Amino acid sequence: MFMSLVALTFTACEDDDETPTYDLTVQLSYPEGTSANEGVEVVLTSVQGTILTNTTDEAGVAAFKVPTGIYAVSASDKQSSNGISYLLNGTIGEVTVMEEAVSVTVEMQASTSSQIIIKELYIGGCMDNDGAKAYQRDPYVILYNNSDTEASVDNLCLGMCLPFNAHASNKNYVDGVLSYENAGFTPAGYGLWYFPSTVTIAPYSEIVVAINGAIDHTVTYSNSVNLANSEYYACYDTEDWDNTTYYPAPSELISTSHYLAAEKWGLGNAWPLSVMDPAFFIFKTEGVTPAEFAAAKDFWYSGGVVNDIYACLQVKNEWVLDAVDVFSTAYTGCQKRLPASVDAGSVYFTNKSGHSMFRHVDLEATKAIEGNESLLVYGMTETVDEAAGVVLNDANKIDAVASAKNGAKIIYKDTNNSTNDFFERYQQSLKD
């Protein structure tokens, strides 16, 4: 009896092993701007809940051998190109395998977000050592790779909208709506700065750009910042803007390969980014260099006033990587200059205080990174706005700078709405 049972068991195992299987070939089809990747995981889930996985070859094909049945197919991929992060997903609900080979195509659907964001914008200056007057020739911007893949961008530019100040009279409103709100472009006034070569930023890393004065400002003003660093970049192009108050010779620590170039179409001898409430954005030109883009002089005129002061280049909204519309706490009646498709909100700011505009941490996404949660540092110093009676801080009370120094990989909130994404930070993060 025992030997009969062993024989029966052995026969049953042999029968299971010999269950016929059939070829199921899955082709991932990618939308324009993306391409097939080798190593993308494709998941089959049978109606019984059995899960099978395999990865694609370089043509985007995953091959399976499966028994007859009904399967759901899914795949996810992530790609980046020229500063845009593509999240690609595709599914097919029911694939029936019935005693013959089956081939299916999964259409991958893409959603996009910018890899490179504005992490911090410092433009308002600080008080001098005696607290008697403001020093405002030390602005900088920090650009951050908000993803887990390397970001590489050509033709990366810095721009600003007119009017320079949010509290100034704005003649671009018609019945309470910006005249270019739905025109598909963001106007860049006066001139632009651009990186002459490809900008590459590692995952969860940053670059600092000195907008004025790539020097150690703390030598004279202790409340200011040290922008003399070999890793930093400098806006410095004396052929267009030669005001040495704004643009002293950069620190010898900074290579000339880290100098941004300028294209100017306005007047004056410096790029007049507001120290109170600018509309600042970063963008990349496509199919044309920044110099060629500026030379075309396809101007739109702010307020309808046709002269060099009001001339603006029409930056396609799909070129804009990130933007922040700043309102001043010192004035009422501030108005947006950035269209809602680029930035749907604004962040209030107090200048002459050493404060900056800084990103909120995306807590859920940051915690989801393996090993991150234990590295997060809480309890950042708060900014007290006595006039408004409010306390300003990261929405989750996280000190992102201290957390990053502790080894955490930070993902910042990016909803294209400055009201939700930014807060007024108690001091420039470069001083932490």
Describe the structure.
With 432 residues, the protein is mostly beta strands. The protein has 2 domains: 22-113, Immunoglobulin-like, CATH 2.60.40.10; 115-360 and 412-431, no CATH class. The protein has 5 helices and 31 strands. It has helices at residues 2-17, 290-296, 363-367, 400-405, 418-421; strands spanning 22-29, 41-46, 51-55, 61-66, 69-81, 84-97, 102-107, 109-114, 116-122, 126-127, 134-135, 140-145, 151-153, 156-160, 173-174, 177-178, 185-189, 191-194, 199-201, 206-210, 233-235, 259-264, 279-284, 299-301, 311-316, 320-328, 347-349, 356-359, 383-385, 390-392, 422-425. Strand 10 (126-127) and strand 11 form a beta hairpin. Mean pLDDT is 91; it is low at 1-16.
Write a concise keyword list for the protein shown above.
disordered N terminus, Immunoglobulin-like, 12-stranded mixed beta sheet, 5-stranded antiparallel beta sheet, 37% strand, single chain, mainly beta, 432 residues
What form results from the Cα inertia axes? Answer: elongated
Strand element count: 31
Low-confidence stretches: 1-16
Number of helices: 5
Q: Tell me the count of domains.
A: 2
* Content-based structural category: mainly beta
Rg, rounded, reads: 27 Å
Give the strand order of the largest sheet, numbering strands 1, 2, ... along the chain. 27-26-23-14-18-22-21-20-12-9-28-31
